[in-house]
Amino acid sequence: MPLQRTTLPSSNRRRLFRHSAANSPAAALMSPESTATALNLRRILGAALLFFLVSLSCVLLFRNAYYSVFVSSNPLSRFTTVFPPNDSAAVTNEYSLENILSEAAMQDRTVILTTLNEAWAAPNSIIDLFLESFRIGDHTRRLLNHLVIIALDQKAFIRCQAIHTYCYLLVSEATDFHEEAYFMTPSYLKMMWRRIDFLRSVLEMGYNFVFTDADIMWFRDPFPRFHRDADFQIACDHFTGSFDDVQNRPNGGFNFVKSNNRSIEFYKFWYSSRETYPGYHDQDVLNFIKVDPFITDLGLRMKFLDTANFGGLCEPSRDLNKVCTMHANCCYGMDSKLHDLRIMLQDWKYYLTLSPSLKRLSIISWRVPQNCRLTIYTLHSNILFFFLLVHFIYPY
């Protein structure tokens, strides 16, 4: 039970403390050296308390920021109402997935896939910036002919049909995509694993795919930068410098997978590993299984993509002459994500206006991250609060 504190005014509390201390037997026996020692001890205790409280504040601050990455900015983290209600007949797919993939596929049966929910489908939101990057990128506009948007709810499907050619509504009897699905809740995990299972089905249909999150800007055709001999290649939050190093930190938001027996069995193994590692989402599980002997036995050729070409806000691609894609990862909050993505597009447009000689000099780089980083305003406020608290407890 917490200690009860009096509610005397601070001035009375101080007078009472000084009066008691001055008239106590202990005070009469204390030497000046003892008094100084006591004051130093109080200051040390106060500093220790301040350090503890500030440390606790930092832990809580970063924990909440980490949580907000997914609650506020992950495409599968939640579904907020951004469209007016529509009680008309249920929207359904006019064409089968096979027909859509067949129509959108390149000659080698490769398609580009992304997922879209209601929040990211809002006008002037993520999906609009995503499509704009294809239109202004270097040899990327034609790739829109091979892009299939997988809508995770009916309102996202309606918006997709208004702005793009190939749309498919992914429905699941096991998961209600209209419910809120916060990061690491059972609904969230079901959706993430549903995506892995869906991609496995695309491979089984005989299609290669590039999967891309919609908060990835496509500035240059990435296909020349892919490894020809890889079955599965994936972008990284951090790239160690080696394409084969399993210590790379992969990011599931961008990968290129070829359809063959090895990749199909790998996706089956990845999906089944959710039971081996319950409570983890697909990217965490990938980090566990990437070193599993089964991968070696399977003969899967796995490669990690260089952030110099496939960058992100975690580790930006510094040279605009090399960049293919840029991901708004390591970003907290939808507003911050949108702000920095727009700055990213502006930087690319400015780069395009430069002469070839100036481009070769690499005189410009990204102006991001800006809002996509943890501000220290809250931390400063918490530190100030704790200074005041300590001063109140130890009014010396």
UniProtKB/TrEMBL annotation:
A Pfam family assignment: Nucleotid_trans
Coiled coil: none
Classification via InterPro entries: At1g28695/At4g15970-like, Nucl-diP-sugar_transferase
Residue span, Nucleotide-diphospho-sugar transferase domain: 143-341
Transmembrane segments: 44-62, 374-394
Keywords attached to this entry: Membrane, Transmembrane, Transmembrane helix
The protein's name in its UniProt record: Nucleotide-diphospho-sugar transferase domain-containing protein
